[in-house]
Hints:
The chain is an alpha/beta fold. About 50% of the residues lie in helices and about 15% in strands. Bound molecules: 4-(N,N-dimethylamino)cinnamoyl-COA.
Amino acid sequence: MNFQHIDFRQEDKTALVTISRAKQLNALNSDTISELLTAIKHAGSDDQIRGVLLTGAGDKAFAAGADIKEFLNKTTSQAVTLSRNGHELMRTIAELGKPVVALINGFALGGGLELALACHIRIASSQAKLGLPEVSLGLIPGYGGTQRLTQLVGKGKALEMMLTGEMIDAQDALKWGLVNHVVPPSDLREFAQSLLEKMYSRSPRAIAQVIAVVNAGFDQDANGMEAEIQSFSNCFGSADFQEGVSAFLEKRKPDF
Length: 256
Ligand code: DAK
């Protein structure tokens, strides 16, 4: 797939999506958001792809936020379109039935951190710096950050980050539960890929169901426990369940 602001590469079962605006610290302008949305939707609909790695080009930034320079030229109606696309991107990632892993290779600030928060798993390089500095621009996080950060780290730490606008380092992010793992910068890709490989050996159908049911628990219009009951029972009719149980009984690895 050809894009101007991102790089999309499929390597075996993995889609590697890289925001490629390194000079602007991978700041998210509206075209980048549209391209990311197209790429993620494609990854979701292509059966050959079983997982997504999302990162930023260069060694300095994952994404240093929404493109502040673009804010100045936007009319109100353009801002509405930007807002809708951004929200759709975050929702599409969060609801994708395949694992999406953010490789936080540097600054993840503002909308950039919100993008990482929408992913299912976050792996940070030991050099990464994370923050929601919107209050210093007279803004608040607008791509779900107020909610998703609070879900991950709890109200106290989330408020501290959002009210001070200060960055935290990767070790604090790990301690607070904001990232799953911290690794040396050179190990980021390999570590994330090995995590994905474990998931590829499991039932893709069950993986999609886990993501959906966990999300249901955070959706005020849904009932997470009821979603689990439905989803769990639906697994019994699936070919993946037949294969998983047969493989166990036949003492072999399942072939999903
Ligand atoms: N936007 C545009 N350009 C950016 C940028 C950004 N967010 N961050 C960095 N750059 C550009 C710099 O302007 C500079 O470009 P030139 O001057 O060379 O042309 C280049 O990237 C390198 O940056 P620095 O020279 O500043 O690099 P340093 O190492 O000195 O500093 C830094 C790195 C990350 C500390 C610094 O660049 C910085 O503070 N960046 C801004 C961080 C920030 O405030 N991010 C935005 C947060 S607000 C919405 C929903 C959500 C949002 C918006 C709308 N709706 C619902 C509509 C989200 C808002 C945000 O993300």
